[in-house]
Design a protein that fits this description.
The strands form two sheets. Strands 3-2-1-5-4-6 form a six-stranded parallel β-sheet. By secondary structure, the chain is an alpha/beta fold. The two termini are about 30 Å apart. The longest helix is centred in the N-terminal third of the chain and has 17 residues. The protein has one domain: 3-Layer(aba) Sandwich (Alpha/beta knot), CATH 3.40.1280. It has six helices and eight strands; from the N terminus they run E-H-E-H-E-H-E-H-E-H-E-H-E-E.
Length: about 190
């Protein structure tokens, strides 16, 4: 269990049919790169949440994925009042219109919970004002999954070990030449 404050990823404006794959990939990226919670907003989509829950169960870790019906209200409370412990958190909006991530990351408070907002179809203008930081991973159009991965990777202190995922049924063991998967209780390579 990490001693750092929690990191939340808020996905705005999910469209169930159009965005199901990209939103699932956002959640998987959030989990793999160390976020603690994925909040889905827009159209409710139990399939995305089930996918994230299934991966967490099979591969381990302590990752929460849930639907947030009122994302702007949640974000306002998080940034201005209560990030879960009675004090405000740090809200970061990933947008191609933001300041360069290399300039912003060193300035970020690390002693408060963090919410990273990733837009969908159209981001309400209010988000730019609620968030303390509007951050661009480059100022050209590209994948929000790539932006989240780069941001989370650079948010971690330099030289830290990869995120650990205890308690899963499956453990992937890094290998230079083959697939090495250990199943909990079986201790055999696949």
């Amino acid at each position: 269990m990490s001693t750092r404050p929690p990191i939340h990823v808020l996905r705005l404006g999910h469209r169930r049919e159009r965005d199901k794959r990209i939103t699932s990939h956002l959640g998987l990226t959030a989990r793999a790169f160390g976020a603690d919670c994925f909040l889905l907003s827009g159209e409710a989509d139990p399939n995305v949440l089930e996918t994230l829950g299934s991966v967490t169960e099979r591969f381990g870790g302590d990752f929460e994925a849930r639907y947030e019906k009122r994302p702007l209200g949640w974000l306002r409370r998080f940034a201005n009042e209560d990030a879960g412990d009675g004090t405000p958190g740090v809200a970061i909006h990933l947008t191609m219109y933001g300041r360069p991530w290399g300039e912003v990351i060193p300035m970020l408070r690390r002693d408060r919970p963090i919410a990273i907002v990733v837009g969908g179809a159209k981001v309400p203008g209010e988000v730019y004002g609620i968030c303390q930081h509007n951050v661009g991973i480059g100022n050209q159009p590209h994948s929000e999954v790539a932006a989240l991965a780069v941001f989370l990777r650079d948010l971690l202190p330099s030289g830290t070990s990869p995120v650990e995922f205890p308690g899963g049924e499956i453990d992937v063991v890094p290998s230079a030449s083959n697939k090495n998967v250990k199943h909990l209780g079986l201790n055999e390579d696949e």
